[in-house]
Structures
1.
Amino acid sequence: MPYAFLTYCKEEEFHQRHWAFPLESQGSLSVEPDPASCGSCHSKQFGSWKSTLHSRALGPGFLWQLPRLGKHSTEKCTNCHSPNLETKNILLSRLGWEEKIQDPKWKPGIEENGIQCASCHLRNGKIYGPIPKNGTSERIVENSNIPHEGFIPKKEFEEAEFCKNCHQSPNTAKPVNGKFLMDTYGQWKRSEFGKNKIHCQNCHMPDRNHEWKGISDPEMVSRGIQTSLNVLASGENFEVVAELKNSGVGHLFPSYSVPKVYLEVWAETKSGKRNKISEKILGWMLDLELQTEIFDTRLSPGEATLLKTKLTRQEFQEIRKIQFVVTVDPKEYYKRMFADNWKFKDTFPENTKPWVLPYLKKALEEANSSKYEFARLEWKP
């Protein structure tokens, strides 16, 4: 038992040390920390990473808020959105809050890469990564030139705790109706997925793929969600039953308060008239200040929600088809928040407008274009 305790403490120590914010300076580097430089050898990982939300963690939706947040809050937010001290300082210097860093290896513009290779793999000038598969036989580079003299392998890279610091509110955070704003790690740990050690990486980094897909990706959602539509006879009447089940998501669906999922059942009559006969919203709806819960209809792993509608025989005989439509709005909260701020843009301090307004406009455009239809099931008599 003492040995197991010491092992557990050692694992916890690595995660706490690796993500001790603010991260320390890397010191003098012998290699370029830019992702494109890493990609010259790690082309597969670089190619996957370029299309991710991680690579856009310093996108317009984040940047427009910074002058209004101020330096202290910006530094806290960049702990996750741009973790390395050097990239953080470049951003702060752009805002006039920090002297430019002197190390020429960290070139201006590198901060725009958001969560990048160095964010997870570079600490104190050393490279860390997961233990190679099958001992040391895994081919992780495209050529034999290893400019950083290899790396330090750590099994903790494939544990859910590795993702915890940026996907879980600290215990000191203020909850909303008893719930943390970020509780994905907690939701996972309390679920069967957590108990069975099915880690974040198993779903979001299959085969060590660096895409980290989530609710913004229809294909990813389809792996964890099942839908069905049935019409059942019930005596002289009929019942339309639409179901959406969290069959394989290892946390609440959706996890955060930002996305919403709209469920609608439509009936089209023989005359061509289309009526919505049932609807429901899945999500955690909060007010714009993130202080008050309006409703929480998220689904736990294995949980399902049903939309049931009764039809008389006469109504049923008029039906040409019934459709169950599921629409995902990954940035619903952001849309509300960005739109509300855009409405009052004239009240912003004049000295902040050149920075804030272009980013805010772009952020609103991106949020408004993120909605997609996930499923459309059809039943005909």
2.
Amino acid sequence: MADTSVPPTTPVPLSALLTRADLGLRRIAGPPEADVHWVHTSEMADPYPYLLGGELLLTAGVQLTDPERYAARVAEAGAAALGFGVTPVYDTVPAALVDACERHGLPLLEVPPTTTFTAVARAVWGLMTQARHHELRRVARAQQGLAAAAARPDPVPAVLHQLAVRLGGWAGLLGPGGDVLRAAGPEPSPGAAAALRRLAAVVAPGTPGSPASATDTGAGAHLAAYALTGPRRLVLATAAEKREAGDHTVAGVASVLLSLLTADRQGAGESARSAALVRLLLGEAPAEVAPLLGEAPWTVVHARGEGDPPDLGSPLVEAGDGYARVLVPGGREVAARPGWTLGVSAPAAPGELAAADAQAARALRRAEAARSALVRHRSGGYASLVDPEEAAAYARALLAPLSEPLVTTLRAWLSLHGGWDRTAAALGVHRNTVRQRVARCAALLDADLDDMDVRTELWLALRSAPGRAEPHSGQCE
């Protein structure tokens, strides 16, 4: 299944770092390629307990006493690569470490004396930002293509074809027994086809406790399956030679469209809502399609949990991978649901849905940071006196030096009034990791986080910052 051992960040190919002439990094052991999800610096004799997978671990070998065990532990933790600074402790990379990394398949980079670890980390941040922008542009183009395909006279094969083109592989609609009903793209190998049928059984619609989607690799292909909503119990399956950042989002959009397009015998209300959603995907203004959706005002709910999406009395649900967004009509009251953490917006008019969506996302972040079952958006107060666009611009500038994991940690730490243990428990990391990250925030922002004025300003900025990623436990600095 999908690898959940690495941070959910856009990876950077190791080769992209090696080609940076300003860094002067040199690979001296291990495979030539790896996906770097983050950078971590440690001089501990055994950094294993503090690694979460996918890191480029940087060290000068201050406590390197057993190279064999050190390389084995770093590889076992799932680190992407090891960068060894040849000063001030060592003049060259120890030969025993080179041999150990080669044996354990761990890429080993020599960091020259002229290159600081900070420069390496800054380069990774820059490359990740570029990769993220590329991913967002690619996803936006794919969504437009899928929406246009859904509006064609024969929409199901058109959507499958568009998805296969965007993924560079095969896309098929599977029936309850795993038989292929419609498909597009080069057919997968028999081994991959068999693996896809097994994967489709994992997400079988209507099965209690089954996930909404699942991924795997088999027969040299990256495979994925997405359960479609509706009584026909269909599954969208994909197979491609490679899997790029954003593919899951693109396939998720296709699964929503196919769920609408394959629904049987819709009533007038369901048909109107489906038409409204497709028109929204095609770019029509929310105010124009609002009459088709039902009674206003609306409440947007963001939810994270396990199992079936929470039943909030609305059919307008987008769900997948333990995350759901629900559009609740008519100003209905939203209550907590077992197993789910909810963020609830203020009631909104049709033209305010985008703002309500952002409110619900912020409320969910506060709920997760405070480990509360439900948090509602709080209107009014000093924050409401500030122009949202000006506040967002200021927040972007103020928080620009911070990475997503640092922002997540800072938000949780501030929401829990600077409690180290409570923040560590909320994020699922060690309390020393929280201390290191908060200290890093203070250094990057050049701010005194013991100052209440500074804390207040940062908290308001975190509430106003647009486009920040949702928090995930397990991200590492």
3.
Amino acid sequence: MAADTTTVISRNPADPADVLVHLPAPGADVTARTVADARAAQPGWLGGGAAARAAALGAVADAVGAAADELAAFAVREVGKPVGEARAEVARTAAIWRYYAQAPYEAAGAVHEPAAGTGLLLTRRRPHGVAGLITPWNFPFAIPSWKAAPALAVGNAVVLKPAPEATACAQRLAEIIQLALPEGVFTVTPGGAVEGDALVATADVVSFTGSTAVGRAVARAAAERGVPVQAEMGGLNAAIVLPDADIAGAAAHIAAAVAGYAGQKCTATSRVIAVGAALDPLREALAEALRAVPVGDPAAAHTVCGPLIGERARETVRAASRGLPVLAEATAPEGPGWYAAPTLVEKVPADHALLRQEVFGPVAALLPAADLAEAVRITNAVPYGLVTSVHTADLDTALGGLDGLDTGMIRVNAPSTGVDFHLPFGGTKASSHGPREQGRAALEFYTSSRTYTLSPARPA
């Protein structure tokens, strides 16, 4: 059956009969007009000055904090995020806006001496115009915010196209943001591929987070237009456990990274590489930790693993481990939500899809490695390179022995999941395209550098 591109529908993953959004998709023409309206509003936003932009972003941070309980409830209901994680995401969202509220006061360039003679050479960073943002459903507040806040801070207008499954969250976030900003500076256009394509075809800078296939198409389309583009895509992340590691602590971290939010994070762990003598004790500790993961209603305070986002996602997860030896499996509810049991498998053939493709669910493979060098080779032997977690008590290993890892981020004695919003975020290979997100890197991405030569006037 062909996908319906004319209607935007969002359902509660824990109770699919609960429909949050059912509305007509606006279409390509409306999306293009939205971008045009944003472009008309952008000069006034930039011209209002740094103080006005800083105050507006600070007001958004305050409003997000004030609405924390309501927003967390939206994330639980619309995308099935366990309430503990939902609250943490909302708190991080407020912190993101507060962090970038200081950015308008950052230096926007530099002054240089000329190579010869008198005068000045200046560099200055200026906004692109309209930032087109395409965001996924799994972090419905944090990801739109860590894209929009830096774009707005440096003077761009923003048009956000959220995933259909997170439309209600995006609309509520937009209501909060729009109260602090001039009209037209921040707009949400709901929809799917049609609206996303129209946004990429009209925006002045594009930031995408989602699947690798779509991200590559977005990058190609933006590159053909000559506009800056970044795409954060998939992950097939490994956890390396060395024999000297705290095995119980590593197992707890890995179980959380496999099963937290049903593995629906690009930073989730899907491959566990046990080095040498770590294999047997890790197998036992990790199996025990995964079996103990609480799976169920995302609104319940104790839940770690809630439902998957949809029926198709659940079928993908079930198919990923079919026919493989199962070491451990948690207990999942039968329904009515789209639940799947967190699962650990072993003896996975090297050419198996589980070791080549992102599942985006709570399934992980336990893999042996003779030594650290082999563990690094196994880690790198996939198309993705987002994040690797490493568990060891040897600081020399952590600092020097892991330089061969071809991943954008390395987390030592910590889960693969977790993002520091003030540092660059991104990966290698099929995980990322273009400049990094977050931190100061985002301020550079949403601006272009101009060089000015100022020479003194000479009388004729």
4.
Amino acid sequence: MASLTKKQTAQLSDMSHDVLVNIIHDLIQDNKQARTTLVNGYLLSAAEVLKAVEKEYARRARSKRFYDYYDADAFFDELTRSIANPLVGIAHELPEQAESLSVKMMLEFEKFTGNVDTSSGSWMGYYTILLDAWMKSLEAQKNNDPASIAKKIFTVVEREFYFGIEIFKKYRTLLGMDILCVIRDMYYQKKLLREALGLSIIIKDLDFLTIAFKSDEFFHSTHYFDYVRLLMEDLRSDDALAVLNSQRADDEEIADNIIWNELFIQALIEEGRKEEAKAHCITAFTFQCDTRFYHLYTKAAEKDVDHSPAFLKIAKDTGLAPYVYFASDIERYDLIDTCIMGTPKNNLTDSLAYITHSYLRTLSSTLYKHGYAHTATLLRRFLVEDNIQQSKSKYYSYAASDMKKAIDYGEGLENCPQLPETEGYLRTLYEQHKRKTALWPLMTDKIKGLSVGKDGLRYSGDAS
């Protein structure tokens, strides 16, 4: 619906109360939708809204109609408008009633949607607003004993399976630490250690996590990592190093983990042990050419000095793929251009096979924008050939699109050994793959000036 112009908004603001009331009466006189919106949205008391929601929910629950994939979105949009949003609106006025009804709807959701195709995921918006209504109704009861509120929440969470403890990240401030601490303790008493530890991370309870660590209750690497992050946030990098060293002593392979190395280096830097941090950056990068180790090195090293050559050498010694990834991350497209153009085709094909097609497409476009059209075209041609080699028709449309891009990028370029001119390249491609009949209609449809018939392939060069 179009909004009012600034002039119309100003005119509306200047109208008197009586005039506005008359306008409203005119609008709803013969417009059922406008009348319903006015009454349900603005003129009902909280108790009346609650009664209307209960009535609508009961009516929908009795319905035997099946909503297929295409009808489901409209179904959940209507539920959001007529049930979920009104329930949020009265959560603070009638908290206990809103709590009871929202919990009922969440716990009956599977049964309620038994005749609805939920595969589109549109149900999540409606369900999220129901959850919001529940949480806001609990917030309105925060003057009660925190333990009683926590017990209500825990009782529902035990039976509800559409969200995990991560939901408490969103409602941490709304519910408050006292309630969340009680819920965490309930998880712990029930021996649900994963949930207890996860909720302790959310509420940043370092005391609980320290006891759990010393009691050897961490059972996943993420528990160590999250605990270490909180320790460093609390300016306790010495304790963070102790935790990481303890983790490494228990699991020697953890030293190969990128996150472990990243946190270890960060803690060394925070402790002022910059030379150790730099040495560890080089060691970690040698094992896994991840750019974050380079950035950590520059953080610990002298400023206004280019530290990339050492890392580029390590990446290049590791292989072409790591070298391309790293050089791209630090925006050294000139080095990528030199490397790719100087690599024999067979070696290049083998190396590029370790890089995803989506990454190569993005890299090709980026190289072209930076003036490296030869390399950009070469990468697109590699994608063309690799997609065709899959010998599956579902990949042929990608090959046609990449060929179109290769022609666009190669326009006006001089021939070079690595990059034969377009028409010759297309003819060679056709001779190699002319039996793949599903490919060439896609090619001719995508590429202007290209035709394939009894006389073979013809290309006029009109790719614009």
